[in-house]
Automatic annotation (TrEMBL):
Belongs to the QueG family. It catalyses: epoxyqueuosine(34) in tRNA + AH2 = queuosine(34) in tRNA + A + H2O. The lineage of its organism: Bacteria, Bacillati, Bacillota, Bacilli, Bacillales. The gene is queG. InterPro entries: 4Fe4S_Fe-S-bd (IPR017896), 4Fe4S_Fe_S_CS (IPR017900), ARM-like (IPR011989), ARM-type_fold (IPR016024), PBS_lyase_HEAT (IPR004155), QueG (IPR004453), QueG_DUF1730 (IPR013542). This is Epoxyqueuosine reductase. [4Fe-4S] cluster 2 binds at C198, C214, C240, C243. TRNA binds at Q220, K222, N280, R281, R295, K297, K298. The active site is at D134 (proton donor). It comes from Ornithinibacillus caprae. One of its GO terms (molecular function) is metal ion binding. One of its GO terms (cellular component) is cytoplasm.
Length: 380
């Protein structure tokens, strides 16, 4: 079988196993990306979640020495939730970003890529391949862009003509010299909606993100959230979709092709208060299968506490006081104190004062003082 025939068979098979879009590119060096990554590093704009050196990230042959091509895949996920539970005054809710709805996409895309890999190996006995989804060295977006999956938007997402930007990406490096596809010819034009809507100004320029300011990143950190971002994260417990929601290319885009990615409303829009007292076991049972749990429960609980402060939820005061007094983790105790100050009832302020007498941790005491400052601001 010649390579072109094989390519057509792979495309056909990919549709049968639930891959929504597939594209092929060479294994050549990603020269422009290399420069870009260096620049991002100099500016300290990276998140720290990227894997590998700049060379490994941009020279596919460092990952598979006999590499000749890369197959890029995209799988669409929903953008709207049916029967979303309402956030009420008594029971405030948080929100997980769409990329964390349903089953963790890493497993789903890896499964599809492994099926594709087995299919190729059956046809070409000496095929050599390497599969990656998100956690590999390659830039999934740079691969997808060059393989004709979609164009690179000012919000830095890959935007497909068919499914907008609500797609997950993955790839397989191979030693088979497939003919490459052409990049998608589309662009943002004069639009700047994502940059204007970004709550933290993280999109410094069209197509350039300062990840350290991006809420999607900040919701995944484990330390205290810097003050300037606390009022910006709102009720987000994991990730941020703002720059995709406002994008005109995502208008009317809402694909429910894969049952795996259907949101479970009580999980994707969870009640905030119960998140404060969830045990490790309950956390694993409830959130363990979703992408947003990969950093463990602490960042999500911290964000839930900030969310309650954001809502000024007076029904949460008692529970926040219990957390401030008893939680062994300083980040959680301190954030609870800050949130109590933000909610601002007399009971909350009194509890902070009382807790200060027993608290030994410097950072927690600092947060408690910040909590009390809200009172001065309100009364002054
Ligand atoms: C680190 C990381 C993050 C970081 C940093 C994101 C970023 N924009 O760099 C944080 C934690 C903030 C993050 C957030 C999100 N992420 Co993320 N993340 C990654 C990861 C692991 C690496 C990305 C990376 O290397 N970035 C460095 C930048 C410099 O490179 P790049 O974006 O990959 O490549 C583009 C640029 O370099 C640009 N470029 C290159 N040269 C030049 C030159 C010029 C002049 C210009 C203008 C641009 C340009 O073109 C490339 C292609 O678009 C990838 C998985 C992977 N292994 O690639 C997922 C990935 C990018 N994330 C993804 C998703 C879904 C998200 C979120 C939407 C999740 C959410 N809802 O919260 C947000 C979106 C935030 C945003 N605006 O990007 C998807 C993107 C799917 C898509 N359709 O694009 C990926 C591909 C995971 C996956 N396999 O599906 N993520
Ligand atoms: S994900 Fe949110 S914070 Fe990050 S660039 Fe987009 S809008 Fe801004
Ligand atoms: S909102 Fe506008 S500028 Fe931003 S990615 Fe979409 S089309 Fe491009």
């Amino acid at each position: 079988m010649n390579t072109e025939q094989l390519k057509q068979e792979i495309i056909k098979y990919s549709k049968e196993i639930g891959i929504d879009k597939i594209g092929f590119t060479t294994a050549d060096v990603f020269g422009e990306l290399k420069e870009r990554l260096r620049r991002q590093q100099e500016l300290k704009y990276q998140s720290g979640f990227e894997k590998g050196t700049i060379e490994e990230r941009t020279e596919p042959r460092r990952l598979l020495p006999e590499a000749q091509s890369i197959i890029s895949i995209a799988i669409a996920y929903p953008s709207r939730m049916k029967d979303a539970p309402k956030s009420t005054k008594e029971e405030r809710r948080g929100i997980f970003a769409r990329a964390s709805w349903g089953i963790d996409y890493h497993h789903v895309l890896r499964d599809r890529l492994e099926k594709l890999e087995a299919f190729i190996k059956e046809k070409v006995s000496d095929a050599n391949t390497k599969v990656m989804v998100d956690t590999g060295e390659l830039s999934d977006r740079a691969v997808a862009e060059r393989a004709g999956i979609g164009f690179s938007g000012k919000n830095t997402s890959i935007i497909t003509p068919e499914f907008g930007s609500f797609v997950y990406l993955g790839e397989m490096i191979t030693n088979i010299p497939f003919t490459p596809d052409s990049p998608v010819e589309d662009s943002c034009g004069d639009c700047t909606k994502c940059m204007d809507a970004c709550p933290t100004g993280a999109l410094v320029e069209g197509g350039q993100l300062n990840a350290q300011r991006c809420i999607a990143f900040l919701t995944q950190t484990k330390d205290f959230l810097p003050d300037e971002f606390r009022s910006k994260i709102g009720n987000r417990v994991y990730g941020c979709d703002t720059c995709q929601i406002v994008c005109p290319k995502n208008k009317k885009v809402d694909f429910h092709i894969h049952p795996e990615f259907e949101p479970e409303p009580e999980i994707t829009k969870p009640k905030l208060k119960p998140m404060l007292r969830i045990s490790n076991r309950e956390f694993k049972e409830t959130f363990g299968h979703i992408a947003g749990s990969w950093r463990g429960k602490k960042p999500l609980q911290r964000n839930a506490i900030i969310g309650l402060g954001h809502y000024k939820d007076t029904t949460a005061v008692e529970e926040l006081i219990a957390v401030m007094n008893n939680d062994p983790r300083p980040v959680i105790r301190g954030t609870a104190a800050w949130s109590l100050g933000k909610i601002g009832t007399d009971e909350a302020y009194a509890a902070i004062r009382e807790a200060m007498e027993k608290e030994n941790d410097e950072q927690v005491l600092f947060e408690m003082n910040k909590g009390l400052e809200f009172q001065t601001v309100t009364n002054g």
